[in-house]
Amino acid sequence: MKHILNIAYYEVLHILKDPILFLIVFMVPAVYAGIFGVVYYSAAITDIPVGIVNQDNSRLSRQVVEAFNHDSHFRVVESVDTYPELKKGMREGIVRAGVVIPEDFESRVAQHRPAELLTIYDGSNLIWGFNTRKNMMEVVNQFSGTYTAGYLAGLSMSKNEIKNVMDTVSLNMEVWYNPTYSYVIFMFMGLMMMVVHQIGFLSVGLTVTREKERNCWIQYLSAPVSRGKIIIGKCLPYLVMNFFNYTLLLWISANLIHAKIEGSVLCIVLLGILYDIIITFAGFFISVHAPNSLQVTRYLLLISVPLFMISGYTWPTRYIPPVLNAFADLFPTTWMINGFRLATVKSFGLAEMMPTIGAMLVMAIGAVGLAYTFRKDRKLSATGLTVNCGNVYPRRAFVFLRPK
Amino acid sequence: MDEQKSPVIEVTDLVQRLGREEILKSLSFQVWSGECFGVFGLRGSSKTSLLHILAGVDRYASGNVKVLGCDIRKNQSFKKYTGLVTQAKSLFQDLKAGENLDFIANLKNAGRANVREVISRLELEDSLRKGVNQIEPGVYQRLALACALLGSPKLLIADELIKDIDLYSRRVILREVQAFRDKGGTVVCAFSNMEFYEHMSRVAWLDDGRISIYEPAAAREHWDSMVHSLAEGQGGTDA
Amino acid sequence: MLKQCLAITCREFCYMWRDKGMRYILLLASLIGLLLFAGIYSAQVLQDIPTAVVDLDNSSQSRALVQKLENAENLKVTAHLSNYAEVRDLLEKGQVVVGVVIPENFGRDVSLSRSTNVAMLIDGSNMIYATNASSAVLTITRTVSAEAGVKTLLARGTELNQAKDAYQAIDLKEEYWFNPTANYAYFLVLGLVLNMWQQCCTLAACANVISETGVSSWLQIRAMGISKFKLFFSKSIAHLIVFMVLAVVLYVLCFGVLKLPMHCGWGILLLFTFTAALALHSVGTMMSSLALNAVDSARFGMIVALPSFVLSGFTWPLEAMPHCLQSLVWILPQTWFFQGLNYLTFKNPGWHYMLPYFKGLTIIALVCYGVSTLATGLIER
Fold first, then answer.
1. pLDDT tens digits for C139-154?
2. Would you tell me how many other CB atoms lie within 10 Å of the CB of residue A72?
3. For residue range A367-396, what is the model confidence (pLDDT) as tens digits?
4. Assigned CATH for B9-192+199-238
5. What is the CATH number of domain C49-166?
6. CA angle B166, B167, B170 (to 5 degrees)
7. A166 and C177: CB-CB below 8 Å?
8. Does the beta-carbon distance from A219 to B91 stay under 8 Å?
9. Across the interface, which of A179, A181, A305 has its CB nearest the CB of C196?
10. pTM (2 decimals)?
11. Which chain A residues contact residue C211 at CB under 8 A?
């Protein structure tokens, strides 16, 4: 125990003495949480700039325009009111949606023929596109309802009678878990778990490479301390720091960003602990085998986006080829970000979380096992004519060494 | 183990490779208790590779190496009784001298009294608060030796212990190494300057991956004759 | 002088090749990314959203409603269940995204023109599902309500024409401009692949200055009296050539093999990409000149590059971000690049429209190269 605490203590000292590492571990998570929190602050797509081309200019068509004007999801851009301007506006991003009311709109209604509205969505960004479509349908449905109620009132029906007619079959749409269509609820916590992943790996991934570069690793190898103690001693500070970052990000997300974090505290804590263990011990394993800190930093920084995208967190797994899903299941991020959503957005209990927790437990054991494969003797290998592949990488201190 | 009769280090047919090149070719030798076994070789002769194998920090290709009765491939417990001074700086550069001693003492289960003793013997009192990168080479070597002597090892493996350091530090180091041997300790020391031959009990000359064992005086003679013949050859060419 | 520059550039190619880590990153990372992202979005459109139906009535009217659901665009009825609890269970587990519960006596109530409620439950935990499912449900809602309303009016004795007029259908003709099939692969794959590309370029550029000033051979270069400008300019040529070759390969694969949309010409696209590469390279060079070692340089560069894709507005729109951030994000070259790329490949707005993007990227490049020149000079002094 003394050995472990001793190694852990000096590991903490090393971290505190590396200002950049200190900033990465203690400040970057909060900064990223702040940045992404501000990005998704509005949470939902509102004020969609829409151009309405009213080719009919009748009373009915003007009512359609009013319906869009009064809807908080849309912002009618009045300068775009002709079809050529709509085309130009869509190309230049002045408007992101369009409605074209044809010339014969009201006359078709008067002739008992279906009246057609052309709704245009910006397909170059499907977040605009799909949200616009949903909101437009709501406006049109609302408009139709208002029109019907007005028409029935014109037939001298009472309010109750109108209500009875219109509610003959009412389809009540209930959106579970995220009724406000909030992108904060959808995306934010997934991004935060990736931040935990990246910061965790980037810090622990340097724990052994740093010693190798400074030639101090030899002290651990030659010391009469068992592998297990070295592993635990080296990993202990990172286990603590990573879990601290996890809870800090949860707090920021819940209290400042107002992300939805509900459900079983036990599940959330368990997930965090398992994720922490996997990252820390897998990071140690990587650090033992990586030639230097530069390679660790480069490779780890690049994997975050692919891991996020293959996880099925955004684009559903049902639409991803099975082989990619199976590949994604090998990574802890897949289980963590999806499991975190199940626990906090859908409020899954412990029993329902068992598959996720089980998978992460297996990965945690695997990560510990991988870390334990480290040997207390090195394999001598010739690097040949290579650059940045040995225990050194460019650092200005070289040039600053002056003879006394 | 019977230190009188069994060797402290027993190497049989040791082979080490770097890539495809064999840098140590079937070495066999023994080191006995109490001796200062010098490993001599010019730069690039793989002295460091040999010492790192004996210290158990590098794996080797084939052969058999026993240190303090342990087959080092199977059993690492000999490290409790071994101290290592490396050629390249290997102390913790982001710690002060005193912090290095504390940390390594903890790793080696050495007590505070032991730490105070090595500080005193190697005269490091004035350097304890300095960063490892800030101390002179001679003081650094004394510090490295102090760290190696923590935990009262039986075997000291030292690589270029007194090369290019000030005379005072050299004197202190040699004094302590002798004291270590007087208490029954064994030293394996790599060196590349034949001037230091007289401090050795025997000299193992590493050349082209092979080892030849000499008495110190004989090693010196061999070296002198090599230098002489090189000089004569040069003179013949000039003529 | 040209000979010197050429020698430095050739040496730089060697350096990049012999840095195995960088070699694999530049050669493979974007290509692997392309494979992955093309695979992930291979389904391209979100169709057949799994739907569960609970028909507690089993009348002709309820079956007609179920038939409507089965014919609905984008919905696919995958489960016919027997009670609400089962629907809830499947929704919670994510096995279905939409759940429809038709109550008992639905048919009777419809026949007697009494109010009846059908529950349409949507799993909102995934917005991609939620927005598409909601749109599909809203379409059905309109037609079903209208039909039932008309029948009710007729039952009350209203004339047929009047009943139809009351529920005068407004048909929606929908068009997705620039991406007519709402193809998710078209929307995202190019952006994601180029995000990998820009991260790799940033990493490579982050080695520009420090790889010379951080090694002992820098003393040789200083002793030879080669101007720093000549040295780093020649090195940068090598980097930019590699970046552009990589970009061209990716474009050929994206537009030629995967047939992603490209409405602009190759000339403007490549020029735009080169300008972006220059800006990205300048950011990496700046980090390289400010950092004391290669690891810190990589970290600084990636601290900018990593969140830049989200900040660029390529996915979550710029206009949806707070106003203060909308202005700030234009500091990043990635914002100019991804915004410009989206416009170029989907909308081809023309040279005049794209000019500010070229200007923005050029200004960033000038500023960052300027900072790195100053920083290198100061540190050396």
1. 888 888 888 888 888 8
2. 9
3. 999 999 999 998 887 766 677 877 788 888
4. 3.40.50.300
5. 3.40.1710.10
6. 90
7. no
8. yes
9. A305
10. 0.88
11. 394
